[in-house]
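Input/output pair, single chain:
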Amino acid sequence: GSLLGDGFLTKNSNRSKEYCFRVFHTEKQRNYLLWKSKMLKELHPRIGSRSSELFTPTHKMFTDMRVAFYKTRTRKNCLANSYVGILDWLGFLIWYLDDGGLQSRRRDMTITSKLFDSNELRDVISRLNMRFGIHMSLRLYKHRNGVMCRVRVPYTDRLFVSKKFNELFIEYSIPQDVRYKIDLSPLKQVKKLEKI
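Output:
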């Protein structure tokens, strides 16, 4: 899930033959980063000493994944690979926690993506919809010099998805510092002050 979100594959140094997994989060989400470290403990990840950064040792597995996710040398941008095909509810939640959030007063659940081809993203959404029994859609927006994609969980599926996500929060002891991303409580109405 993190490879669709904030995570990326890179070399630890110019001398490395293989790649490693790396992810940054804000200091506010440090507990979420520590949780990811615990989830990846078999890969012996380390946390950066001066930042909210997690990185693993280099490994051939990550080099193979890099070939699948990166069509260019610099940016991940390919979803037409077998790794995306095995995304489960936990992977979907991690993608959402990395790049998603609640939008507007209606509390729409969305995931923003700037890196992936919209046609490949539509294909992934279609497969996830069939697998999970939901009806996500994709909207395109102009963004600087390109297009930004926003995956949207419709209002009708929101409670079902939120319930699944809440179950995963409990099952996997996901930290509370990212729970706000799935809290469907309505926003408090702010009264406008009348001009005198």
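The mean pLDDT is 86. Residues 155-171 form the longest helix (17 residues).
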